[in-house]
UniProtKB/TrEMBL annotation:
Any one of the GO CC terms: cytoplasm
Enzyme nomenclature, EC number: 1.8.4.12
A GO biological process held by the record: response to oxidative stress
Protein name according to UniProt: Peptide methionine sulfoxide reductase MsrB
Active-site feature positions: 137 (nucleophile)
GO molecular-function terms, A-Z: peptide-methionine (R)-S-oxide reductase activity; zinc ion binding
Lineage of source species: Bacteria, Pseudomonadati, Bacteroidota, Cytophagia, Cytophagales
NCBIfam families per the UniProt record, alphabetical: peptide-methionine (R)-S-oxide reductase MsrB (TIGR00357)
The protein's required cofactors: Zn(2+)
Co-factor note (free text): Binds 1 zinc ion per subunit. The zinc ion is important for the structural integrity of the protein.
InterPro entries, per the entry: Met_Sox_Rdtase_MsrB, Met_Sox_Rdtase_MsrB_dom, Mss4-like_sf
HAMAP family hit by this protein: MsrB (MF_01400)
Length: 152
């Protein structure tokens, strides 16, 4: 389980190798994504609070990167943060996401990116629930829910 100390260490020293890499030109991304998805994931934008599709979603499944399909978050780690964005306590794997120091807008934050395609996801904060204490505050436009299949 990752903690805030792990996040800072990974932000300063880099993420573990991703399982694969997906790299495309801006024009290729623009053809595949909606304007909102492109703005959030490729231009490091943020959707307005309480407007995202997954803000209050409770379906079981995995949340994958909207750009490359890599599973990033498990619905079992999703919680109601009251912030207006989907919030998770952990990524599905340590190498699924990458943390990066973000000093934009006169603040110091830690940005969350897909480690496979570098898509901006959101930011992580040390004010989440136990046991990790993490709140990965993620834009709905950067993820898609892949529901779990019922056993046959």
């Amino acid at each position: 389980m990752q903690t805030w100390n792990d996040v800072i260490r990974l932000a300063n020293h880099g993420a573990p190798e991703p399982p694969r890499r997906v790299e495309k030109t801006n024009e290729e991304w623009k053809k595949e994504l909606t304007p909102q998805q492109y703005h959030v994931t490729r231009e490091h934008g943020t959707e307005r609070a309480f407007t995202g599709e997954y803000c209050e979603a409770h379906e079981a499944g995995l949340y994958a990167c909207v750009c490359c399909g890599t599973p990033l978050y498990d619905s079992r780690t999703k919680f109601e943060s009251g912030t207006g964005w989907p919030s998770f306590t952990q990524p599905v794997e340590e190498n699924a996401i990458r943390y990066k120091k973000d000093t934009s807008y006169g603040m110091v934050r830690v940005e969350v990116l897909c480690n496979v395609c570098d898509a901006h996801q959101g930011h992580v904060f040390p004010d989440g629930p136990p046991p990790s204490g993490l709140r990965l505050c993620i834009n709905s436009a950067s993820i898609k829910l892949v529901t779990e299949k019922a056993p046959a």
